Each structure stands twice: as C-alpha cells, then as structure tokens.
Amino acid sequence: MATAALARRLGASVKDAGAKKGSGWYSSHMAAASRAILERIPLVDFTLEIRDARIPISSAYEDLRDFPPSSRRIIVLNKTDLADRRQTKEWLRYFEEQSCVCYGINSHNKDNIKEFLNFIQARVRELKKDDQLKYTTTIMLVGIPNVGKSSLANSLHQIGRISAAEKGKLKHTIVSPLPGETKDISSLKIGSHPNIYVLDTPGVLHPSILDVEMGSKLVLTGAISDSLVEECEIAEYFLSILNTSNEYKHWENLLAKEDEESSRDHKTNFGGNLEVELRRRKQYLTDHTQDFIVRDVRRTLFESISSFKGNLEDEKELSKLIKVQFIALQEAFHIPLGSAKDINHRVALKLLNLYRTGRLGHYTLDPIPRNAK
C-alpha cells in the first residue's frame, strides 16, 4: 500500500535520527525522568497513563509494559477531539476487553474534565472506604511527550479548586505544543475532602523505536520533534493519509453550505461592510488559522482528490497527487514567491499545524489489533 510505503520511509528517517548520539529524541533528562518515575510508581495511589487517542498503541508508555493491568492504573486516551469518534469508542471497548481501566477525554473541554474528576474521586472513595478524610491521595500522570499531560493536570487543578471553592493563586505546569518541555515532576492539588494531588511528569520515549511505522505516527502527531526530520516528509505522509481516507468527502456539503452563506452575506453586505471584510482578509492573508484560509485549504484538497484519476494505491501515482497538492496549497496559503524548497517548507509547516489542531479532520492512525477478543 502506498501510504504504508511513505510511512516506512518516514519512520526509517525518524529511526536514523534517533540513533545519532546527542541529536536524537532520548536525552539525559529523559533517562533521569524515567528512573524517577519508576521509583515513584509503587509509592503513589494511582497511575494515569496518558496516551494520544489518535495512536492508542503507538503512544503507550514503554516503562509500564511490564506492569500487569491493575485497578490502580488507568489508561487515559487524551485528544479525543482530534481522533475519529467511532474508532475511539472501539478502542475504549478493546481496552476494556483487555481488563484495562480506560477513559477517553479532551483536556480542553471543561464538562469533560468535570466528568473525569468525578470518575477519579469515585475511584479514590472506592480505594479508601475507611477514614477517607484522613488520607491524601496521590495520582501520577505518565506518558510520552506531547500527549497532553500538563494540559490535563492544569485543567484538573483548575476545575478541582473551583469545585472545592478554594481560594489562592492557581499553579500551572508548563504547556507547550513542542515535545519535551516539561523537565521536572510537579505537584498540583485537584481535590479536597479527601485531598487529592496529581504529579505531572516529563514525557519519556523509549531510547529506540524498532517499529518504523510507529516512528512515523509519533512524529506526525508531534510526540517527536519535527526538527529531527524534514517537515515536508511529514506533511507528505499526512497527505497520503488524507488522500486515501474518506475524511475529505465530509467537506463537500460543508463547502456547499459555506458557499451559500458567503453568497448571502455578499448580497447583504454589498457596499461598505463588504469592503471592510475584504480589507480584513487582506490583513490576515498570512495567518493560516483564519477561517477563510482554512476553507480555501479544504477546498483545494477536496478538489485535487476528487478530480484525481490515478490509482491511490500506487506509490508513484500517490506521489504525483501530493506534488500537485503542494503547488496548489501555495496559493491557498497565500505564500509569496520564493525558492521551491522554501515554499514547500512553509506549506508543510502550515499544513501540519492545521492537521494537529483538528482543522483538517479527525484521524485515528492505529488500527485495532487483529487478535482483539
């Protein structure tokens, strides 16, 4: 399959980059963090293993593989807002069948956080049925880089304090779209009566990635820094996934509806308001997150895939389509003329940002294991 071939090629580049001493993803602070986390696991009441819902297997925390399933270990599939909703439900069912406690969450959704906090408090009450108020419960968040541990810790801290009507300055752990920004283990209070604290830990990857396709998924979702490989190579992999999926087909009705609304607004605002809108668009032409640019990008991709007559299962044919898309996206992103390398680099950066923020659809990259019950 053409997409698999691109994934293996990208994964091989990731693997080669990781093998270079001093420039790979596994740093000395990761090694130290790994040791510190393993020392604390037996001492905490619960361990929450945070995974990326788009890659539920590829984002597993390697150091926990030797630990058997336990009611005190909870797998949390974060970023459910970026994954395919139907497949997330299937993954939750799969983990349940494997005797794992699992929960799906969007750490930026307050209602979701409240529900999850209630779930945690129920587990705590179950664990400490006698003299609950006398105990302090500690929960450690572990996982690979950029799965949203710090974001989840901050959200739980904020909602937990509001629920307990506690006063005082909120603490925050560092949240960054770049992997590896959390360097130390930090503690945040998320509940009172009984007191519950979460320990946010640095993201830790395994020193070596043996599965090249896993490597491609990790770098596409941002768990491994883009700087280790060519961004264009990562963007090409994403386009191969989009081109061979049905996600783009959902845009047809959406684009038609947006055209209708745009036409209606054009008639209504004909005159002064229209000029204001045109000036606004001109002002933000370089901001790819603007809705009108995202619409143009979706339209460009939809039209390029829909009109393509080649075989998408053929690697050469798929590569031809991707080259055409890179050229067309230069206009959609309003990228000025320059060298082909610079233009493609800027297209890749903007495209990856829209994918990683869910503006170009929802994708689950890991398939359910075939040996599932």
Provide an overview of this structure.
It is found in: Mitochondrion. It comes from Nelumbo nucifera (Sacred lotus). Keywords: GTP-binding, Hydrolase, Mitochondrion, Nucleotide-binding, Transit peptide. InterPro entries: G_CP_dom (IPR030378), GTP-bd (IPR006073), P-loop_NTPase (IPR027417). GO terms for molecular function: GTP binding; GTPase activity. With 373 residues, the protein is an alpha/beta fold. It folds into two domains: 27-200, 3-Layer(aba) Sandwich (Rossmann fold), CATH 3.40.50.300; 212-263 and 274-357, no CATH class. It contains twelve helices and six strands. The protein has helices at 2-19, 28-40, 85-97, 110-127, 149-163, 212-220, 231-243, 251-268, 272-283, 291-306, 315-332, 340-356, and strands spanning 46-52, 73-78, 101-104, 136-142, 186-191, 195-200. It has a six-stranded mixed beta sheet, sandwiched between helices. A hairpin with a 3-residue loop joins strand 5 and strand 6 (195-200). Helix 4 (110-127) crosses helix 5, helix 7 crosses helix 12 (340-356) and helix 11 packs across helix 12 (340-356). The longest helix has 18 residues, at 2-19. It is globular. The model has no long low-confidence stretch (mean pLDDT 86).
